[in-house]
Amino acid sequence: MIRSELIQMIAEENPHLFQRDVERIVNTIFEEITEAMARGDRVELRGFGAFSVKGRDARTGRNPRTGEAVSVEEKHVPFFKTGKLLRDRLNGEG
């Protein structure tokens, strides 16, 4: 599912809301999650999962074509851990 499909689905399930309002709501939610993670905060959505940021230390990597050693800088990457309810539902237990 992509963002536009999510917006369309929510708008269809809530005919009392204008699609532009649903789009604004969905975009605001995603922006808030992104901003919180950019600050280094953890975002938990009960029953769904938790988004966090993990740091990766600088290291020496290898160019796969040449085998040459390459310096890889320190970086931060998003991490998602599923919640129990989502995990159970995916495994047919819910």
From TrEMBL:
Recorded family membership: Belongs to the bacterial histone-like protein family.
Xref: PANTHER family: DNA-BINDING PROTEIN HU, INTEGRATION HOST FACTOR SUBUNIT BETA
An example molecular function term from Gene Ontology annotations: DNA binding
Subunit structure: Heterodimer of an alpha and a beta chain.
UniProt xrefs under SMART domains: BHL
Gene Ontology BP term (one): regulation of translation
UniProt cross-references to InterPro entries, sorted A to Z: Hist_DNA-bd, Histone-like_DNA-bd_CS, IHF-like_DNA-bd_dom_sf, IHF_beta
SUPFAM superfamilies: IHF-like DNA-binding proteins (SSF47729)
Protein name: Integration host factor subunit beta
